[in-house]
């Protein structure tokens, strides 16, 4: 799972198919998937940075 989260483009591609079915529009689905995957990547990076700063304290 960590490998998938470290590659936001692959994650966006995989998320786009369920969003395509839900939204009915592939361009909107890929746009939402890109935003969502980069948001997940940012949250993961913030959690990692937070853990590292707690370890140093």
Furnish the topology, listing elements before pairings.
Blueprint: H1 2-5, H2 8-23, H3 26-56
Number of domains: 1
The best one-word shape is rod-shaped
Low-pLDDT residue spans: none
- Termini gap: 28 Å
Largest sheet: none
- Round the mean pLDDT to the nearest integer and report it: 86
Radius of gyration using CA atoms only: 14 Å
Strand content: under 5%
Q: How would you sum up this structure, described in words?
A:
- This protein has 57 residues and is mostly helical.
- The protein has one domain (2-56).
- Helices cover 89% and strands 0% of the residues.
- The protein has 3 helices and no strands.
- It starts with a helix and ends with a helix.
Which descriptors apply to this entry?
single chain; 89% helix; mainly alpha; 57 residues; 3 helices
Describe the structure concisely for a colleague.
The chain is an all-alpha fold.
């Amino acid at each position: 799972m960590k490998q998938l989260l470290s590659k936001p483009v692959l994650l966006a591609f995989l998320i786009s198919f369920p969003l395509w079915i839900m939204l009915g529009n592939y361009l909107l689905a890929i746009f939402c998937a890109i935003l969502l995957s980069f948001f997940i990547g940012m949250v993961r990076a913030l959690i990692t940075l937070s853990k590292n700063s707690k370890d140093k304290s």
